[in-house]
Amino acid sequence: DIVMTQSPLSLSVAPGEPASMSCRSSQSLVYTHGNSYVDWYLQKPGQSPQLLIYLGSYRASGVPDRFSGSGSGTDFTLKISRVEAEDVGIYYCMQALQTPVTFGRGTKVEIK
Amino acid sequence: EVQLVESGGGLIQPGGSLRLSCAVSGFTISRNYMSWVRQAPGKGLEWISILHSDGETHYAESVEGRFTISRDESTDTLSLQMNDLRAEDTAVYYCARALRGYSFILDYWGQGTLVTVSS
Q1: Cβ-contact B107, A61 below 8 angstroms
Q2: Is the model's pLDDT at B86 over the cut of 80?
Q3: So what's the pLDDT on residue B6?
Q4: pLDDT in tens, A3-17
């Protein structure tokens, strides 16, 4: 199985400040047309996960442009350009290259 | 509007069976890949099963042979039949829809249903 390793485990960020988190896969997630099969999800407290970024860098419908995804191969990054209070929660990366689909353990974002 | 609503969770004894349902609206269930993902209390996300548009199914090793995913196209309902339940199956179970044309870009999720396996 592909192992997804996220860091850091938690982040405390002041409103308006940037945030960055990392996700590494145990094997390359590049597939067709150079797309990387990694998605990012945010699970807000008490809610279901929601899709933020897919194929490494594409924002899902309705996701604010302060969120961006980058990377390829085995190293991926999710950045929030200016953190807002509503961004608190746990961010998960997930590899969608092969079954079993696997998630990272998450990065918890809190507001200072 | 796309909606997914799970039901069927509850308290069940080890070795018992339970059937979860996920009623969808706003799209036709047979046209999208559908998955079940679970989350044990205080833990992360674990994918457990997928049903392709063509009916092909796949399972995580942890549930292979015990769980069965299916759909009823007449009612646009996804189901998960869970047999031989174990304490480690205790979790919130989410159904999720994949973006059309993709297997695992999970763009809509239900609210989840809690399954507790305990004597």
Answers
A1: yes
A2: yes
A3: 98
A4: 999 999 999 999 999
| Segment A41-90, tens digit of pLDDT | 999 999 999 999 999 999 999 999 999 999 989 999 999 999 999 999 99
Q: Report pLDDT digits (tens) over B12-48.
A: 999 999 999 999 999 999 999 999 999 999 999 999 9
Is A94 touching B (CB cutoff 8 A)?
A: yes
Encoded tokens for A10: 């938690």
Candidate from A60, A92, A96 with C-beta closest to B45? A92
DSSP secondary-structure letter at A36?
B
Q: Pairing mode, if any, of strands A107-111 and A10-13?
A: parallel
CB atoms within 10 A of CB A8: 11
Q: In terms of C-beta density within 10 A (0-12 exposed, 13-18 middle, 19 or more buried), how is residue A112 classed?
A: exposed
- Does A37 touch chain B if contact means CB atoms closer than 8 Å? yes
Instruction: Please name the residue of chain B whose CA is at the shortest distance from the CA of residue A42.
Output: B45
